[in-house]
């Protein structure tokens, strides 16, 4: 069966495998020959550039080309071993691929830290740098098996979380660029280690650029006006690379302004200007093939790979372990003159730069070569995981002294996540697990528990037979055979929202899944894999019967069309068919989950309800969420438990903002945690019982609900996205988080010191418990040529204070930090303006304010007498941002009625002529109007059909009647592209 198109645009983790390519495997794994240790490239006393030059000069062209694929073969004559990019390590070493088994996935059994969004919710860079010593475990795994575990780590993800529906929200840090950059710097620095010349491991930032949707992720374009691009989406990448905390970027699947990110010229033109170190830039998995496949951007792979290499890609992640297509494409590109050997040398130099810094060519392997597998899941790392999980938890609400809990009280721990820990796509496999129930049981005087899920059986209405699990503990085909309901005929139903449920067999505790794309079998430890085959819907019919609908991978990609409903074959085996041919079942509830949970809650002093998400179902790679609600059945459970016992604590365990309006209104205490790894239960108990005073803070705005803008609209300025521009009232604001103690802010002082401002404030713990406070500094520019954020985070610090203790916290804000991207002159500019300086406990909880008067400059009126790029507009409606050519440059595409505007244009010299670079396949015109899209018409530029959207011609028209300083609107008629324009006299 051919692999579906989406599979070709996904990470290397694959559930389906082809037969190994033996010749390639032998080439990659053969033992290298002994090399002359006196060769200059092996001399660590020589300058790095000299060592790279020496090795590069010894390589043949074929050898250099072989290094451009992700799986770099050994070069035996020089004693060089194989090398590969791509060990996943977002929150601990997660998985890698086995070159000896055609890229089969090997999952790491090591320390699993909280998901990335949880790491950021600590607001603690120092802690995240310690967590970044995941690089140490990467070295341990590498020492264990260097063929499987490479030292080029694909982490962290610094894509900004501007839309909470993004399926990969768990992988990122924050909607704020400064916070994201700070955590990325910390985590990347921890990965790299503290040696100035060597790397413990090499962190690669994902995914450049503006990657925040999964729907049609390889064909959608993220439209980025220059200011949005520079001020927002580039910022965390720039921060990490400028700080030396990353060794390269991975390009995204999406397009940016009409050009695939895989061939984004910014890789060389922009990203590499942020550092003087070599960067190793890689493609996302399968992305080179998208250029000739789903994106149809180039006709041949030779053209595509050449363009990627010239744009700044160094390593091609594609075709699993088979490097032949890449090698063939590069050689073809060379023969066709699309590439030169110098282009190859440039990329190989970048690759070697990282390999040298990893110590590979040092005689002793460098300072990190002695790390052994003993570091993997060490006691110190387990303690760090527990500390991090506790510090990441956010107390959303706490009324009537509900928390912390009294250890002497009887607790009912209920809910579908009460006694389970889930991992995610980019998680390792914990070697042990402490569930919420386990952690609370260690602390409470008495504990009762219930998962709060229905236990049911399904009976065929026609035959009276019920589902039977088979006889093997590891799972077997489900059949209709028994006529009475025993344990082997019962299933626990877990509700994940929007009708999606999972079915766990009571007999063996495993989940019902699709086996071999055919029958149903109870053999899954948890829903997982790229093809999540454990998803079902129970569709009630008018007569009260149920159809069981398979809702896994095929329904998402329409492999089997309407054949998604369960039918009993003549031998009782369950297969799939159409709705009209499906078996009708009676759903018999053996035990009501809500009734069981309510009974336990009534008997307890306090009820802890643990609800949330399943990371492989509720949003994940390749699947965005379509709403932000808690699963309907889980919310019903919370309501029932609260009504039974008002002293209820809700623990919400998921990876993103959730609409929990009713819960917030009624339940007295709410604690949020992401999926936090093996130590989740211990950390949760530490917080619930007050051993750890919670101080995590939200890294995203939690909205009340309602309609969000289109997930594909990336212009946060125009659409008022994120806390930066959102003017509404959120459920919980950015930076929100409560404590068991209270803090007072006093004496805010702001002093100008050279090119910076020193901000200081005195913070006092006014409560009776020691605790952490996250002091946050925001600014707002009062006047500006352009729309300014409502407020913007400029600095933060997590501090620890004993009861009654005070501390003066000092921050430095550079004037340069207050700059905006000036589209009129394409540079960073600080405007003269008053700025509000706001210090507090969240973006909405401001405790102290001050004003500073920043001396900058006034951005001059627009001068369009010189050629001006069309994309440097000040506002727009309806247009698309597109690629000027396939190599570089941006343009604007509009249809009838669309417009762009250039504000404050200096027309005092009364220009008489407009010229523009335009392209169109059908022809049209561009109207120049003053003041509004329907204002005074001063020119109409005719656009002839140029035959190709990339074939630009110069069009001109006479300008009549302009004067003064006016807003100039360009209104499109027909389908037209414009790359630049100028207004001249004479």
UniProtKB/TrEMBL annotation:
CDD domains: beta-trefoil_FSCN_BglX-like, CBM6_xylanase-like. GO terms for molecular function: alpha-L-arabinofuranosidase activity; beta-glucosidase activity; carbohydrate binding; xylan 1,4-beta-xylosidase activity. It comes from the Bacteria. Residues 866-984 form the CBM6 domain. One of its GO terms (biological process) is arabinan catabolic process. Residues 1-35 form the signal peptide. Keywords: Glycosidase, Hydrolase, Signal. InterPro entries: Actin-crosslinking, BXL, CBM6, Cellulose-bd_IV, Fn3-like, Galactose-bd-like_sf, GH, Glyco_hydro_3_C. The keyword Hydrolase applies. Belongs to the glycosyl hydrolase 3 family. PANTHER family: BETA-D-XYLOSIDASE 5-RELATED (PTHR42721:SF3), SUGAR HYDROLASE-RELATED (PTHR42721). Catalyzes the hydrolysis of a non-reducing terminal alpha-L-arabinopyranosidic linkage in ginsenoside Rb2 (alpha-L-arabinopyranosyl-(1->6)-alpha-D-glucopyranosyl) to release alpha-D-glucopyranosyl (Rd). It is not able to hydrolyze alpha-L-arabinofuranosyl-(1->6)-alpha-D-glucopyranosyl (Rc). This is Exo-alpha-(1->6)-L-arabinopyranosidase.
């Amino acid at each position: 069966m051919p692999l579906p198109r989406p599979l070709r645009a996904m990470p290397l983790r694959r559930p389906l495998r082809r037969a190994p390519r033996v010749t390639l495997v032998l080439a990659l794994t053969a033992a290298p020959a002994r090399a002359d240790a006196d060769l200059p490239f092996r001399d660590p006393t020589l300058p790095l550039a000299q060592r790279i030059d020496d090795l590069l000069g010894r390589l043949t062209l074929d050898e250099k080309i072989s290094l451009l694929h992700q799986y770099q073969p050994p070069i035996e004559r020089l004693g060089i071993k194989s090398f590969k990019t791509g060990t996943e390590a977002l929150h601990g070493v997660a998985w890698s691929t086995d070159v000896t088994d055609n890229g089969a996935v090997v999952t790491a059994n090591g320390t699993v830290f909280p998901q990335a969004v949880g790491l950021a919710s600590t607001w603690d860079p120092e802690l995240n740098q310690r967590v970044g010593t995941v690089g140490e475990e990467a070295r341990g795994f590498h020492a264990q098996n260097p063929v499987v575990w490479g030292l080029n780590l694909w982490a962290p993800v610094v894509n900004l979380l501007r839309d909470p529906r993004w399926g990969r929200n768990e992988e990122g840090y924050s909607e704020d660029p400064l916070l994201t950059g700070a955590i990325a710097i910390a985590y990347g620095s921890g990965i790299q280690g503290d040696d100035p010349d060597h790397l413990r491991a090499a962190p690669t930032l994902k995914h450049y650029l503006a990657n925040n949707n999964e729907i049609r992720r390889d064909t959608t374009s993220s439209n980025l006006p220059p200011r949005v691009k520079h001020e927002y989406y580039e910022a965390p990448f720039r921060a990490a690379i400028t700080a030396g905390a990353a060794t390269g970027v991975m390009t995204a699947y999406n397009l940016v302004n009409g050009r695939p990110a895989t061939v984004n010229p910014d890789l060389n033109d922009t990203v590499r200007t942020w550092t003087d170190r070599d960067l190793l830039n890689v493609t996302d998995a399968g992305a080179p093939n998208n250029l000739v496949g789903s994106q149809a951007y180039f006709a041949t792979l030779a053209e595509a790979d050449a363009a990627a290499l010239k744009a700044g890609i160094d390593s091609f992640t594609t075709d699993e372990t088979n490097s032949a297509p890449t090698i063939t494409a590069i050689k073809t590109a060379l023969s066709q003159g699309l590439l030169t050997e110098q282009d190859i040398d440039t990329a190989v130099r970048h690759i070697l730069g990282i390999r040298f810094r990893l110590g590979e060519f040092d005689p002793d392997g460098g300072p990190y070569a002695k790390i052994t597998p003993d570091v993997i899941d060490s006691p110190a790392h387990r303690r760090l995981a527990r500390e991090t999980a506790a510090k990441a938890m956010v107390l959303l609400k706490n009324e009537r002294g509900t928390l912390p809990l009294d250890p002497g009280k009887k607790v009912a721990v209920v809910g579908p996540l009460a006694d389970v820990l889930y991992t995610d796509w980019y998680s390792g496999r914990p070697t042990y697990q402490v569930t919420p129930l386990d952690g609370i049981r260690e602390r409470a005087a008495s504990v009762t528990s219930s998962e709060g899920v229905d236990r049911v059986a399904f009976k065929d209405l026609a035959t009276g037979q019920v589902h039977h699990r088979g006889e093997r503990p590891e799972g077997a085909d489900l059949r209709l055979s028994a006529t009475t309901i025993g344990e082997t005929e019962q299933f626990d139903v877990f509700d994940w929202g929007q009708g999606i449920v999972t079915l766990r067999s009571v007999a063996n505790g495993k989940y019902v899944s699709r086996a071999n794309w055919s029958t149903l079998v109870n053999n899954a430890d948890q829903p997982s894999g790229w093809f999540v085959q454990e998803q079902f819907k129970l569709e009630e019919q008018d007569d009260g019967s149920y159809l069981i609908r398979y809702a896994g991978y095929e329904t998402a990609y329409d492999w089997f069309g309407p054949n998604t409903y369960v039918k009993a074959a003549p031998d009782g085996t369950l297969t799939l068919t159409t709705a009209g041919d499906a078996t009708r079942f009676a759903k018999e509830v053996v035990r009501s989950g809500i009734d069981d949970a309510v009974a336990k809650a009534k008997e307890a002093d306090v009820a802890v309800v643990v609800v949330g998400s399943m990371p492989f179902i509720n949003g994940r790679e390749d699947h965005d969420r379509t709403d932000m609600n808690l699963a309907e059945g889980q919310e019903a459970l919370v309501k029932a438990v609260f009504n039974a016992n008002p002293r209820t604590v809700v623990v919400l365990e998921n990876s993103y903002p959730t609409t929990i309006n009713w819960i917030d209104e009624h339940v007295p205490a709410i604690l949020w945690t992401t999926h936090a790894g093996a130590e989740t239960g211990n950390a949760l108990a530490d917080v619930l019982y007050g051993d750890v005073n919670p101080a995590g803070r939200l890294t995203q705005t939690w909205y009340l609900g309602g309609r969000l803008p289109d997930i594909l609209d990336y212009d946060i300025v125009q659409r008022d996205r994120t806390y930066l521009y959102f003017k509404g009232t959120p459920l919980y604001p950015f930076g929100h988080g409560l404590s068991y103690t209270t803090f007072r802010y006093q004496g805010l002082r702001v002093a100008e010191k050279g090119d910076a401002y020193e901000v200081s404030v005195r913070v006092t713990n006014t409560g009776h418990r020691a605790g952490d406070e996250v002091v946050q500094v925001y600014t707002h520019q009062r006047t500006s040529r352009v729309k300014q954020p409502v407020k913007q985070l400029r600095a933060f610090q997590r501090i620890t204070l004993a009861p009654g203790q005070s501390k003066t916290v000092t921050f430095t804000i550079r004037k340069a930090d207050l700059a905006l991207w000036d589209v009129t002159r394409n540079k960073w500019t600080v405007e003269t303006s008053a700025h509000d300086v706001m210090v507090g406990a969240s973006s909405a909880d401001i405790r102290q304010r001050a004003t500073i008067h920043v001396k900058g400059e006034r951005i001059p009126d627009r001068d369009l007498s010189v050629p001006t790029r069309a994309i440097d507009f000040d506002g727009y409606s309806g247009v698309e941002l597109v690629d000027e050519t396939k190599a570089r440059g941006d343009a604007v595409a509009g249809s009838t009625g669309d417009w762009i505007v250039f504000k404050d244009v200096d027309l005092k010299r009364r220009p008489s002529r407009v010229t523009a670079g335009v392209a169109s396949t059908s022809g049209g015109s561009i109207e120049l109007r003053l003041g509004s899209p329907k204002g005074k018409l001063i020119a109409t530029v005719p656009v002839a059909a140029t035959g190709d959207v990339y074939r630009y011609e110069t069009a001109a028209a006479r300008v009549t009647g302009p004067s003064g300083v006016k807003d100039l609107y360009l209104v499109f008629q027909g389908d037209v592209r414009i790359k630049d324009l100028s207004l001249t006299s004479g």
